[in-house]
Design a protein that fits this description.
By secondary structure, the chain is mainly alpha-helical. β1 and β2 form a beta hairpin. The longest helix has 24 residues. The chain is elongated, with a radius of gyration of 14 Å.
Amino acid sequence: MGPKTEELICVLDQLAAMLESDGDTHWSLWMRKARARLMESDYSGIEYLQSAYGGMGSFNDLILGQSHDNGVLCWKPGHVELNERFDELRNEAAKLSDFIKRNI
C-alpha cells in the first residue's frame, strides 16, 4: 500500500467519523466500505468511492449540520465550520482517489 492510499484511508476515517457525528448512516457506511476495500489492497475501493460523487443526491450534494424541528429546517451550531471542514475532506478524498486511479 502506497503513501497516497494510506493518506486516503485516513481521510476516509475522518469523513466517516464526521458523518456519523452528524447522524448520517448512508454515506458513513459508504466511506467505511471504501476504506475496508483499500485496507485489503482491493483497489475496487477507489472506483466504489468515486461512484459516490456526481449526479443528483450524490455525496458532493451533502450538507451537514441540518435538523428539523416540527418540520422546520434548523441549523446546528457550528454548521458553517463543520461544512467547510467536510468540504475539505470530501475534496481531498476525490483528489487522492483520482491520483491513485491514474497511478495504479
